[in-house]
Each structure stands twice: as structure tokens, then as C-alpha cells.
Write a structure and sequence with these properties.
Blueprint: H1 2-13, H2 18-23, E1 27-29, E2 46-47, E3 50-51, E4 59-62, E5 70-77, E6 86-95, E7 100-101, E8 110-111, E9 133-142, H3 152-158, E10 163-173
Antiparallel strand pairs: 1-4, 2-3, 4-7, 5-6, 5-9, 6-8, 9-10
Length: 175
């Protein structure tokens, strides 16, 4: 329980207050899957017994608040490691004029360290027989670009005080 509470506390640091979120019209969506729907097999990891292409799904966003200078994007599985979670993607330095990522395209934005121990997208690959896991894509609109070398928790901490709005999209995947 202590690990879960610590992970939730780290994530909460970067989140704006409820009143700020209520005013935001930031939206994150995908043509590859619906919110709460199953992610395509091709977007899954290629390794650990998974056979996907390990390419990220299409994502697009709109409605960023005035003053947005950059975006950050994370993909986190809160179901992994008995609730401790797993960072699948940590991306930041996304220009304020960007509004999406085409299907299966590798990105050139700054990519932080994932729980796989690598940089870049790491697709879903839950243990066989587990209930399908939830993969939470979170897009952050920031009031300044974030520079540095971060993993998921480090990025969340670096964004503290700079998040103007956030939007989430949840995909599910099981095997």
C-alpha cells in the first residue's frame, strides 16, 4: 500500500487543481482505439512473449489553453506490478503547434526512460492470463518547455507548477 500511495502522490504533484481542470477544454483521442476500448495488437510490445510492432497508436489532441508552450505525454499502466504501475512511454518537448501523432510513427521528441529501462514507446504486454490492463495516456499542456533527462516520476515532478491542463485517454489490452 505504501508504494501505491507514493506513486499516487508523485502523479498528483503535477496535476492542476480541479477548478483549473474544469475550465480546460483539452481533449486527447485516437483513431486507433476508443476511450476505454481495446488497443490494437500491432501497438503491443515486441518481446517478453508479446508479438506486436511496438509502434504507438495514432493520437490527436485539441483545445489547449492559452499560454501553452509545450506538451508532454505519458502512457502508464496502473495495473502492473501488483498496483505499483509501469511507465510505457514518457515524452516531452512536444511543440505547442503539434496536435497529434500519426498511426505507427516513431517520434523525435524527447523521450524519457520507461519501466522497460529504455527510451521510446514500449507497448502493452501484460502477463498472460491477467485481466486486461488499463493503459492511461495523459497529455499535459505546459506553460514552458521541459528540458532534462527524466523517467516517468521525474517528469511528473519536473512539471510541478507548469501544468495548464491535462487530458486522458485509456486503452485496454490483455493476452
Amino acid at each position: 500500500m505504501k508504494i501505491i500511495a507514493s506513486a499516487l502522490a508523485v502523479v498528483a504533484i503535477a496535476l492542476p487543481s480541479a477548478s483549473v481542470l474544469a475550465k480546460s477544454s483539452l481533449q486527447l483521442a485516437s483513431d486507433s482505439f476508443t476511450d476505454g476500448g481495446t488497443m490494437p495488437h500491432w501497438a503491443s510490445y515486441n518481446g517478453y512473449g508479446c508479438t506486436g510492432t511496438n509502434l504507438p497508436p495514432e493520437l490527436h489532441w485539441s483545445g489547449e489553453p492559452a499560454g501553452t508552450k509545450s506538451f508532454a505525454l505519458t502512457m502508464f499502466d496502473p495495473d502492473a506490478r501488483k498496483g505499483a504501475g509501469w511507465w510505457h512511454w514518457v515524452v516531452y518537448g512536444i511543440g505547442a503547434k503539434m496536435h497529434g501523432l500519426p498511426t505507427g510513427k516513431r517520434v523525435t521528441w524527447t523521450q524519457g526512460l520507461t519501466s522497460f529501462g529504455t527510451q521510446g514507446y514500449g507497448g502493452p504486454c501484460p502477463p498472460p492470463g491477467d485481466t486486461p490492463h488499463h493503459y492511461v495516456f495523459t497529455l499535459y499542456a505546459l506553460d514552458e518547455p521541459i528540458a532534462g533527462n527524466y523517467d516517468g516520476p521525474g517528469l511528473v515532478t519536473a512539471m510541478k507548477g507548469h501544468v495548464l491542463a491535462k487530458a486522458q485517454l485509456i486503452g485496454r489490452f490483455g493476452r
